[in-house]
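Lab notes, practical 5.
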Amino acid sequence: MDTSPQDRYLNRYTCPRCLSDWSDFGDATLEDNCPNCGCKNVEPWSSEWKGETALEALRNSRLNLERAARAEVALDAFFAHVGEPRDTDDLHDDITDLMTNLLHLMDREGIDHDEVIRPARAHHEVEKALEEESNGKN
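Output from the prediction step:
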């Protein structure tokens, strides 16, 4: 995925023909074709800036270091609870169990899954794109 500075908008689309939803990075208000039915020139219903200023980049680099440290502690605690995975299938099963327990907790607390998962997925997509861009420059 190319994420040049002008491609830092997350555009969200709904196809007027088949009602499929999708999102993609690109210029603000960039028209796209429906990946499901091929309907052409669909305009985004939302276009959200996902880039950052130089000050934000500096702040985020510090936050990312803190986040990485917290993630490492959480991962260590997770493996201490379930044991080191023996292979990819074990890790997949352990993560599935963890996610299932988190969903049960959200149900118990009355938290809408989509309110947590959608922003997390969008945040993950942005971080992944920025990481790929950073790796491409090295």
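Observations recorded by the TA: Strands lie at 9-14, 21-26, 46-49. The first strand starts at residue 9 and ends at 14.
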